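Case study 2.
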Amino acid sequence: MGYNRPVVRMPPVASLAAALGLVAVLGCRGPGAAPTATLDRYAAALRKQNYDAAYELMSSTFRSQVSKDEFVRMMRDNPREVSDTAARLAGKRSKVEVTAELTYGLGDTLALVHERGEWRIAENPLAFYDQSTPRDALRSFLRAYRLERFDVMLRFVPKEYAQLMSVDKMKAQFAGERKDEMAQLMNILEANVDEPIDEQGNEARLRYGAGFEVKFVRQDGRWRLRDLD
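Prediction:
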């Protein structure tokens, strides 16, 4: 969908993809326990090739996704990496920072850090309309649409379309006669916001459904939406 020729198609909602992360529990007895103690135990288990003990130090989320047999096999298949990890963990460490991350909304995240016995927000929660990555740009565009911030939506228009658009034109396109059609398209995009993105230089594509895609372009260091379907 270009900004002057909206077209809406109806692809099926994309299936969800699971991402796997290897995360050791930093402090098995709660935020008050020293994270370094867990790291020391983990390093010792790796050095002794006691992979059962190392597995028990992994988070419950990790263990629900990776069986002990898979974990042990991965460790045994990569002895040099295991040895290097153990050596690095045993080396001198600077202060360990315990963090947490909340996922909410359209896949937005908010980082927290544990300081002096309390959890505090570690980043700017007011960065509502980030354009630093293609996915951030798409989420921000969708947020601006949901909040009817047509002025903000203009930030995501590529330069070649900028002179053709205004706040009133943006409002007419997304909240005018084709309001229901555009709402349908936005719902589809929101359902597919976590699909893989192919980024090549200053251009990117998010493919979804049967041959549909969102096209992005980076201009002046910010990602913008060139085409929505």
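The radius of gyration is 23 Å.
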